[in-house]
Amino acid sequence: MEEVNSNFISTIPFVFMGVAAWFAIAYAMHSRLISFATKSRSLSRKNNMTIYNLTENLCMSIGMKMPKLYIIDSSALNAFASGINEKTYAITLTRGLIDTLDEKELEGVIAHELTHIRNKDVRLLIVSIIFVGIFGFLVEILFRSVLWGSAGRRRDDKTDPRLMIVALLIAVVVYFLSILFKFALSRKREYLADAGAVEMTRDPMAMASALRKISRNYEVETKTDDVKSMFIQHGKSKKKNLFSSFSGLFATHPPIEQRIKILEQL
Fold first, then answer.
1. What is the count of structural domains for the chain?
2. Would residue 140 show up in a list of annotated catalytic residues for this protein?
3. N vs C: which end of the chain shows fewer Cβ within 10 Å?
């Protein structure tokens, strides 16, 4: 136990330096990392005047600085907002979304993402994703310290099972903390973003129609699943039962059918 503790304590300074560097790089380069993960590219007024004008008009109506626009060359229907400040705020739309939705529906989706930016949801989600990676890194360091410490003992010594149990318990706690960080942007924030879209556009049926079309084909291929939690729709709908009700507590998004139902009642 003393050998394991010594090995772990000796790595703490290096771990903190690594975590600090990781956070700084991820925080400063998150926009590039997201673009790399989604294979998105810049969308200018020249590329698509309709999208640019819709976004500009919505921003002018609420006195908001216009975010950058990006596009993903995917037939899927989806969109997300990202950024931590006015310089990095951005809205990304898929090619399938732009080609399939009409102007009213596109306006609703863009308004939804602008609401996420106004409510600072995008900053919270990006920071939570970074911390998930950091927690996972710390868990790996812990396990490696335990394994190396055990390997350094004499061959005829047996690994203390209590040590492994403690390590496993810590890993489980960190795992659930990571989930809480990752899902910090709760399902209620999606409802608020839908409501914000309706407030801006005054057209709940257009937003409901957009979500209905999105529900048929929204899976976008990305280099990391972490980015998918940022999309307007993520996760498959499940039949209602006891298990789905429990698993729904850990979902980043509420059931899209429920969101449509609420919008249609407005």
1. 1
2. no
3. N
